[in-house]
Amino acid sequence: MIRKILFAFFLFTSMSLLAQKLEFIGLGINSEMKNGENMRTGVAFSYENQLTKHNGFEIGLNQRFADRYIIGPVGDGTFQTSHIIENYLSLPILYKFYSNIVNLSTGINIDYFVAWNDITKFGVTEPNSYNINPKLYVGWVFKVGKTIPLSAKFNLEPEVHFNPIFKYGYSYFGASLKLKYRL
Questions:
Q1: Does a structural domain hold residue 7?
Q2: 12 lies in a domain?
C-alpha cells in the first residue's frame, strides 16, 4: 500500500515538473450574430490553464444576445410585431490547442436565458411579459485565435468562432477580442 502511495506521489510530482502550467484570466468584448441577424456585442470573461506546450482548457462566462420578433394583438383587433432582445449568460467549456501559428478551441457551450428587452419603436402597445421554454440551450463551439504578446504579463487574443445549437437549428457566428493577464 505504501509503495502505491509513493508511486502515485512521485508520478504526480514528476508530471507537474514537466508541465508548462500557465494560467490566464481574460476580459474582452464578444460580437456575434444569430443566423445572420443583427450583430450584438457583449462582455466576455475567461480563465485559461495551459497544461503543456500545446494543450490546455478554457472556461468562460459571456454575455450573449438574440433578436426575436413576436406578433401580438392590439386592443382594436389588429396585430403588432414587437422586436425583443433575449439576454443570455453563456458558459463555454473548451479544450484548447496552442501553436505558434493559431490557437484552436472546441467544446460545449451552455446558454441560459436570463432576461429580455422590448426595443420596438413606434409601437402602440408593449409586451408586458415574455418567457421562453426551455431556458437552457447546449451547443458546440469551434474557435480559432492568435495570441499576440504585449508584455511579459499581458497578451491580446483576437478570435473568430462558430457555435451551432444543433437541437434547435440555429448558429452563432462571431469574433471576440480578449486582453489576457498571466497569473
A1: no
A2: no
